[in-house]
Each structure stands twice: as structure tokens, then as C-alpha cells.
Amino acid sequence: MDAFQFKAEPGANGKVFSHYEGFKLHSAFQPIYSLSHCRIVGYEGLLRASEGRRQLSPYQIFSLARDEASIVHLDRLSRALHLKNYCSMSTEDAGWLFLNVDPRVIVQGKHYGSFFQQLLEHNQMPPERVVVEIMEGAIDDEMQLSESVGFYKDLGCLVAIDDFGAGQSNFERIWRLAPDIVKLDRSMIVQAMQKPMARRLLPGIVSLIHEAGSLVLIEGVETIDEALVAMETDVDLVQGHYFGMPSNLLGEEHGAARITNLFQQYQMASSLDASQKCQAYYRGAFMDAVHKLQAGVVPEIAYNKLLTLHGADRCYMLDQQGVQVGASCMAVVDRQGQVADLRYQPLAEAEGAIWSRRPYLRRALQNPGSLQMTRPYLSIATGTLCVTLSMAIVLNGQVNVLCFDIHWVEDRFVAK
User: CATH 3.30.200.20: does it fit domain 9-270?
Assistant: First the structure.
């Protein structure tokens, strides 16, 4: 298809539309917001097809392209339509234009001649304002996928991996392809809403992608509760009906005001989050144990009040190198040294164990006299989820770290 001569007809507001297999094709643009900036930073071009009152989804219209040449033609027609319409409305501060490329075109498009660079030049669109979305899970040819990502990067465009978290997505491809943006599939936020474990793990997934050098966008955010989950995960960008519906026009909607409101709700929720409630519940008894230890009371008695509290598992002392000094003191219900899962019994005895890699040691030593709390993790001693409270204290002129493990139940300290 000639990038300059695709068949387009004038529509309302200076935009154009085209036809394919009797269907009218036109562009819709959904805003993409930066949470930190509280504003639109780009739009995704979305293909819309209609025949009278009948509406087709992009998947349905592309299913009409039954051979390779037709698929390439329709994909190029779609991108040409979006670019023409976007450039007719946008200014330099409109941000990025996100364009989808059909996976089949990624693999076979190069056999049909150059197109995309000519299209950008014809529309006077700087390549750095274009984000090319590639659905990595739909392409099995690793070499072709890498070449395609490299092609668009060499043009000067940004590359986004789309629908990450769906199907066969994997981190190995993220590390190898080094995309500029990773778009998390809506299924990930749905799972986070339904399963506490998924909600707990999602921020870690975002953190890994950040460490790989990519921005993270979560798509399909439809409700305020989903938006608050997105806030918790530390994603950079958001997209979805809650922030803005697809429209044939560009412009500020209600998204910016909603993000400002989200920050207010997020800060209120953070002041009552589970970790702070947990610390508040145990702090008094923990400090009681500290004072008794510093007064010379033996650990078994000093820990007594703390170990009778609901959820208590064990107390133990570490030296500055992270070596456990003495055996663990078990909660009252576990005085016989019972563990939650007998399969972990070989790991239950910990005297002399070296815990120098654990965050509860490092954070305590970095913040002496301040109570620290870990994120939930699997206890090597019990095989169950736990959190650890820790504090660096001085005993007999030496710095030690008092640690207290708590059986973690997902909703025990969740704000209601």
C-alpha cells in the first residue's frame, strides 16, 4: 500500500475515514495518563468499523482479512488512518501516539516493501512521538521478534510490549528485547482484585520490569478500586475507561481530576495500611521485651508478653553479622517446637544460622532503635507466610537485632 495514497474520505472535524470490505473504518483515541504527572501523556489509536448500526471490534474486522497480503494491507491502512487523524488534531504537547502492529505483519510485512518510515515522514510525525505496540506472546519466531523491535527502535520510535501477563508472556523476553514500555494486560489487575496473593505480588512484578529498564503501563482500568490497585503497584502509566473512554477527539477529560482524587484516597488509605496496623498492634509488647532484655531479664521471660499475642510465631536474636544467637523462643501455642508444616522440620532449628541476607537485619542496622517490618514472605522455618518485626538494640555494650516473626493472614490487618 502506498503510504501517501491510501483511500481516505473526509469526515467531520477535519478527520478522515476509509472503507474495507464494505465497512466504514475510522479512528478512536483513548487517553493514556501518567499518574505522577496527573495528565495525559499520549493516546492509543484504536480501529473502529461500522456498517449502518452494526459495529465490529478490531478483532472481527481483522478476521475478514483472510490472506497474508490482505492482513498487511489492513494493518497499514489502520496505521495510516490513525496517523492522519492524530496529526490533524494534535499539537506537540499531545504526547505519544500508540500504534498497534498486527503480529502477522511483524513477521511478513518486510516482504511487502517499506512503509512505516515513509508514513511518518509524509505526516511530518517525529518518530520519537510514536510508540509501536507489539504483542510479544503472539510471535513464536524469536529472531523475527528481536529484528522487529530493533527495526522500530532504529527508526527512533519507542517500542511497547503489549498484553504482558496474558498467555505465554515471560520475563526472559523483557530482558532480551528491552522494550521502552511494558503494557500489563487487564487480566493482571483483575487477578489482583480477586486474589490477595496476586495483589501482593503485582508490585514486585512492576519493580522487576522497572529494574529491566522499562516503564510500566497498566491497561483496562475500569473502576476506582482497580485504579487504587494501580496506584499501589507503582506503575507509571494507566489506561482504561475509568480515566477516559476512546473518542474520535483528543482532549482533556475527567482523568486528571480523578487521579488527583486517587492520590488523596491513596494517602488516606496508606495512613491506615496493614503494615502500620500490624506494627501498632505489636509495638507495645515488642518494646516491653526490649526494655526487659536491656534490664538483664532472660529472653524466655522477656519475650513472654509478645509471644502470647495473636499471630505470634517466634522471637530470636541476631548479632551484627546476622548470626542467630541462641535458639528461637516459640509462641506459647508452639512451646513444643511444632511447625505449621512438618515437611519443613529440618529447617526449624536455627541457632547459629546466618541471616545476613535478610532485609529485616539490614533495615534494623540502618535504622537503630526504630521498629522495622518486612513485606510478607515464606518462612523457611514453618513453610507459611510471615512478616518479621526487627529492631537494632544495644545489649551488654554490643549491637544486636531482636527479631519477631508473625504468622501473616492476608486480611488480619487490612483496612476495612
Answer: no
336: CB partners within 8 A, 6+ apart = 330
The answer, as to whether pTM is greater than 0.90, is no
- Residue 346 is classified by DSSP as G
CA–CA gap between residue 151 and residue 226 (Å, rounded): 35
Over residues 196-228, the pLDDT tens digits come to 889 888 999 999 999 999 999 999 999 999 999
Question: CATH code for 275-407?
Answer: 3.30.450.20
How do 96-100 and 130-134 pair as beta strands?
Answer: parallel
Task: Tell me if 394 sits within 8 A of 364, measured CB to CB.
Answer: no
The DSSP bridge pattern shows strands 237-238 and 39-51 to be unpaired
For 100, 140, 338, 406, the CA distances from 315, given in Å and listed in that order, are 54, 51, 15, 9
Residues in the chain, total: 416
DSSP state of 72: H
172 SS3 class: helix
pLDDT in tens, 98-108: 999 887 777 66
Distance, in Å, from the CA atom of 402 to the CA atom of 388, rounded to the nearest integer, reads 10
Closest to 316 (Cα-Cα) out of 342, 348, 277, 339: 348
| Residue intervals in the chain for CATH 3.20.20.450 | 9-270
